[in-house]
Amino acid sequence: MGKISLIIPAKKEPNALPIVLEEIKKNNYDFNIIVVLDKNDIETFNSIKNLNCKIIWQPKNGYGNAIIEGINHCETKYLCIFYADGSTDPKYILPMLKKLEENKYDFIFGSRYEKNAYSHDDNIVTKIGNFFFTFLGNFLMKLELTDILFTYILAKTNEIKSLNLSSDDYCLCIEIPFKIKFNNLKYSTFPCVERRRFADKKKVKAFSDGLKILIYFFREYLNFINKK
After folding, report:
1. 178-182: long-range contacts at Cβ-Cβ below 8 A with a sequence spacing of 24 or more?
2. Three-class DSSP labels, 31-97
3. Number of structural domains in the chain
4. Whether 39 contacts 69, CB under 8 Å
């Protein structure tokens, strides 16, 4: 057993996900792979059922719920939240781990907006939205992040489990750094190039999901203020 598990939430990725898993195998990465599928996604299941991965069916719907289920089933020392569409490049995982271990961090956040980093999958709407939420998080919550909505995250498994995450949707992107801040855990960032997705369609709905995240952000911020 390797010491890193990849948590891969997948929904309707029958064409992209097999390529992702084959890339990991081809490069001889010693990762445990946990794929978390929507309970009705038989097409994606059939595309990967003979590949080297553990498949879990999520009990609820939502991106956040899939990640939480993957975390709960993780038994390795470290885990990495990884994308099923091919946009997250696995070559960054070991350098992220090296930075985490050498500096005794609890979390490393991949970032598309630092020197030597870039996103090929962004558009103007998602880029503006990300800068907006990153600014709010840094200004109001005193975070030190450059890409708050990118959940390419490497973590100590025990520490991310200790956060008791609960968001079933994309609000999990905000919940993770907020709870890291509340619990005084150590974190840093690592520059990454986000690739174009290999196949299939993007699932994020920029405006409706952005509104949910905004409402969650200010609700949790007010809770934080009231506790001070």
Report:
1. 178/137, 178/141, 178/220, 178/224, 180/106, 180/107, 181/141, 181/142, 181/143, 182/224
2. EEEEEEECCCCHHHHHHHCCCCCEEEECCCCCHHHHHHHHHHCCCCCEEEECCCCCCCCHHHHHHHH
3. 1
4. no
Question: pLDDT at position 37, please?
Answer: 97
Alpha helix positions (H), 104-205: 124-140, 157-162, 172-182
Q: Where in the sequence is the domain holding 45, given as residue range(s)?
A: 4-227
CATH code, domain with 19: 3.90.550.10
State the pLDDT at residue 214. 93
Residue 228: its pLDDT value, please?
Answer: 60
Provide long-range contacts, Cβ within 8 A and 24+ apart, for 217-222: 217/133, 217/136, 217/137, 217/174, 220/174, 220/175, 220/178, 221/140, 221/141
User: Beta 153-156 vs 107-111: how paired, if at all?
Assistant: antiparallel
Cβ pair 107, 151 in contact under 8 A = no
Query: pLDDT means per 10 residues in the chain (228 residues)?
Result: 90 96 93 95 96 94 96 97 97 97 98 96 89 95 95 98 96 96 96 94 84 92 76
Distance CA 183, CA 150 (A): 21
